């Protein structure tokens, strides 16, 4: 069977990625940090093993607010592209909007359902996780426990 290949690109086209194989996880995300970072009421994240995503020209620029988390974006057009969490080893999440064929990626769950905006309605039967949909490395913990305000000297 042929290996699946997908392509992603930002709004201006400066950043392009080739993605190999099947994504291991696709979820809606109602998280408030992601809402701020991305600018939409919710997003869909597509999870791939890090080594299956190749940026062909240059990689996204990254920004980190929460220790261990890097959000990737295009410095030219501002498209949100990626999310990498140190607590999720060898995983990268790609925004659905970055994909050239977003219709091929169907979510399997809702994450951070407790943060869903009250006027967002879904009639689907997908599982609704109140918080994170994926387990983090116990040594690193969950992002909400890593916020800078929580640090003690
Ligand atoms: Zn761009």
TrEMBL record:
Keywords: Lyase, Metal-binding, Zinc. Belongs to the Gfa family. This is GFA family protein. One of its GO terms (molecular function) is metal ion binding. The lineage of its organism: Bacteria, Pseudomonadati, Pseudomonadota, Alphaproteobacteria, Hyphomicrobiales. It comes from the Bacteria. InterPro entries: CENP-V/GFA, Mss4-like_sf. Residues 6-114 form the CENP-V/GFA domain. It holds the Pfam family GFA.
